[in-house]
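Figure 2 data, in text form.
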Amino acid sequence: MSEGIWTSEEYLKNLWRLLIIYMGNRMRLFWRRQAGRRYFLLFLKPIINGIGNYSIEPETRNSERMDLVIYYGGEQYICELKIWRGNAYNERGEEQLCAYLDHFHLKKGYMLSFNFNKKKKIGVKEITVKDKVLIEAVV
């Protein structure tokens, strides 16, 4: 960390781990995706304050709505938010995120899944879909 500002890599490495800690006790409050998004933004605002910004449901040129785009350190980060409804639904979300990444010529995207299952596995994983790298966090 230089001069009190995280580099993009430091920011991304720590963001998802901090998010899991922050949201861990709040899961019972998430009864819909918008509530989860509000808590995520409450977590995110102090981190990007003064350095970055975000857009909620911005549209692409072909009128598709992305969930969240974060602008930080001169970079653009596309984040897809989903409620866990099984592997097939999750894979469709990954394909949707890949389409957004293709539209903006990006190689890396982020997916945050809110899982209400009692035997869920929370954590962060990195997967490759097509030629894209997706960082998935499950809370």
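Caption note: The radius of gyration is 15 Å.
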